[in-house]
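Long-time lurker. I teach an intro course on protein structure, and each term I like to show students one example going from raw sequence to a predicted 3D structure in token notation. This year I'd like something fresh instead of my usual example. Would anyone be willing to generate the tokens for the chain below so I can use it in lecture? Attribution to the forum is fine with me.
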Amino acid sequence: MGNKSIILRWCLTTILLFTSCKSYYNETIEWMDGLEPGVGIGIVQKNQPVFIGIDWQNPDSLEGQIRYKIIKIKGNRDILKMEHYLVFEKGKYIGHETHK
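-- Reply from a regular --
Happy to contribute to a lecture. Here you go:
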């Protein structure tokens, strides 16, 4: 009976820890939506939340636009594994892209 109790406690603790870790996915989307079009890249970098990791060193370029991939969202449990990009044109923020 003692081993079953220990295993049950361990399982419940693991489930509790997993479900109690905060996901900042929605906060990331809200932050991206709240960025003002036309703001400079330096301001965006300066105001980047600590729960987001952005690959500032390896931008993508596409049709005159520069895209920076969000490579980490703290606590993210997105089962679709969506990719998020911040999009700039001439050094100014123009929006974000999200796709699979």
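Some talking points for your students: Residues 23-99 form a domain with the Beta-lactamase Inhibitory Protein; Chain:B, domain 1 fold (CATH 3.30.1450). The longest helix spans residues 2-20.
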